[in-house]
Specification:
By secondary structure, this protein is an alpha/beta fold. It contains twelve helices and 13 strands. It folds into two domains: about 230 residues, 3-Layer(aba) Sandwich (Aspartate Aminotransferase, domain 2), CATH 3.40.640.10; about 120 residues, Aspartate Aminotransferase, domain 1, CATH 3.90.1150.10. Strand 12 and strand 13 form a beta hairpin.
Length: about 350
C-alpha cells in the first residue's frame, strides 16, 4: 500500500537547486545559498568552524543562550573570543559593538543572533552591520527566528553568513536549514586550513562539489520530507506575500503584549522596539507552575515556561508561523488568565484592539 509521506521518488538535483533558489529569493540575495540537511545548529557550527581558527579574534555578541554556544565553538576553534554580553531582557546597540571593535581592532569575525525566541528580544542588525562592515570583520547572523517574522536584508546589512531555519516563522520542520554565503566568506573559508572538509559540517564541500560543479550532482541523498516541506513553506510565503507574513507576526506581538499587560503581567523585554515578533516573554512568578496550569486549561495553547535558569521567572507566548494569529494569541491569554484565576475578557479585548491597530 502506497503512502504519500513514505513512498517518495528521489529528490532530483534540479528540484533541489530550485528550492535553493527559492531560499535566495526569500533572502533577496544573489549570493550562494547552501541548504543543509539538519537543524540550524548544523550550518551555524559549520560557519564558525570554517571562519574561525587559531590566530583569529572573534566578537561574540551574547543576547541569549545561543550566544553562549557560539562562544564555546569559537574557543574550540582556537580563536580568541571577546564576549559582548547584554542583559537578556534588552538588545545590544550599534554603539556597544563599535566600542568593542575599537577596543579590539584585531577582531576579524563577529557573531550575532538577530531575534532570540528564547528570551523574546531582537537586535538592530542594520545598524550593527554598518559598524561591522566599516571595521572589515566577517559578519555571521543567526536569523533562524527572524526570517519571515521581521525584515531581513542580509546583503544590504553587510551580513556575510546568514543562517535560517524553517521551524519558526516559516512554519516548517526543524530538520532543514540554510545559509547564504558571501564571496568574502568563501575566501575566508578557503584560506583556513582547519575548515571542515569531507564532513557534514563542511560548507566548502558544497561549494566545490555542488555549486562550482554546476549544481548537477548532490553530495548525498537529501532528506526528502524536509526538503519538500521547505519548498511548501516558500510557496506559502510567496502566496501570502512576505510583507503580509511579517505584518502578521508584528500584529501578533503587539496583541500579545497588550493582552498580557491587561492581565497585569509585565513584558520580560521592557522596550517594545526591542521585542521580537516571534515570541512575547513575560515576567511571571513561579513561571513553571503558571505555565503548567495554563497548559492544563488549554493543552494546545502555544506557550511554555522559559528554559533553563529562566524557567522560574518567565513564560513565553510563541506566536510564529501559523500561530502568528489573533486566535492563537487569545488562546494563550485565556489560558494564562485561567492559571492566574483572572477574567480574560479585558486581555482578549486589548489584544484584539492592538491586532487591528497594528494591521491598519
Amino acid at each position: 500500500m502506497t503512502h504519500p509521506l513514505l513512498d517518495l521518488a528521489p529528490l532530483t538535483a534540479e528540484r533541489f537547486a530550485r528550492i535553493e533558489q527559492g531560499v535566495a529569493d526569500l533572502l533577496g540575495t544573489p549570493e550562494d545559498v547552501v541548504i543543509t540537511q539538519g537543524e540550524a545548529l548544523l550550518p551555524l557550527e559549520g560557519c564558525i568552524r570554517s571562519g574561525a581558527r587559531p590566530g583569529s579574534t572573534a566578537l561574540n555578541i551574547v543576547t541569549g543562550p545561543y550566544g553562549t554556544t557560539f562562544g564555546n565553538w569559537l574557543r574550540d576553534c582556537g580563536a580568541t573570543v571577546v564576549d559582548l554580553a547584554v542583559p537578556f531582557d534588552s538588545a545590544v546597540t550599534a554603539d556597544q559593538v563599535a566600542r568593542a571593535l575599537t577596543a579590539h581592532p584585531q577582531i576579524d569575525f563577529v557573531s550575532l543572533v538577530h531575534a532570540e525566541a528564547a528570551t523574546g528580544n531582537t537586535n538592530p542588525v542594520a545598524e550593527i552591520g554598518e559598524v561591522v562592515r566599516s571595521h572589515g570583520a566577517l559578519f555571521m547572523l543567526d536569523a533562524v527566528a527572524s526570517v519571515g517574522a521581521e525584515p531581513l536584508l542580509p546583503d544590504a546589512w553587510g551580513v556575510d553568513l546568514c543562517v535560517i531555519g524553517a521551524q519558526k516563522a516559516m512554519g516548517g520542520p526543524a530538520g532543514v536549514s540554510a545559509v547564504s554565503v558571501s564571496e568574502r566568506a568563501w575566501a575566508r573559508f578557503a584560506e583556513n586550513p582547519a575548515a571542515p572538509r569531507r564532513s557534514y559540517l563542511s560548507l566548502l564541500d558544497w561549494k566545490e562539489r555542488w555549486i562550482d560543479g554546476g549544481r548537477k550532482a548532490l553530495l548525498h541523498a537529501p532528506a526528502q520530507l524536509e526538503m519538500l516541506a521547505l519548498e511548501a513553506c516558500l510557496d506559502r510565503i510567496a502566496a501570502e506575500g512576505l510583507p503580509a507574513v511579517t505584518a502578521r507576526h508584528a500584529a501578533a506581538a503587539a496583541a500579545s503584549r497588550a493582552g498580557a499587560v491587561a492581565l497585569g503581567l509585565a513584558p520580560y523585554v521592557g522596550r517594545a522596539s526591542e521585542a521580537a515578533p516571534v515570541a512575547t516573554t513575560l515576567r511571571v512568578s513561579d513561571a513553571s507552575l503558571v505555565a503548567a496550569k495554563a497548559l492544563a486549561a488549554d493543552p494546545a495553547a502555544p506557550l511554555a515556561a522559559g528554559g533553563g535558569a529562566l524557567a522560574s521567572e518567565m513564560v513565553r507566548v510563541n506566536h510564529y508561523g501559523r500561530d502568528a494569529s489573533l486566535s492563537a494569541v487569545q488562546a494563550c491569554l485565556t489560558a494564562l488568565a485561567a492559571a492566574l484565576a483572572a477574567d480574560p475578557a479585558g486581555a482578549r479585548a486589548a489584544a484584539e484592539a492592538a491586532w487591528a491597530a497594528s494591521l491598519h
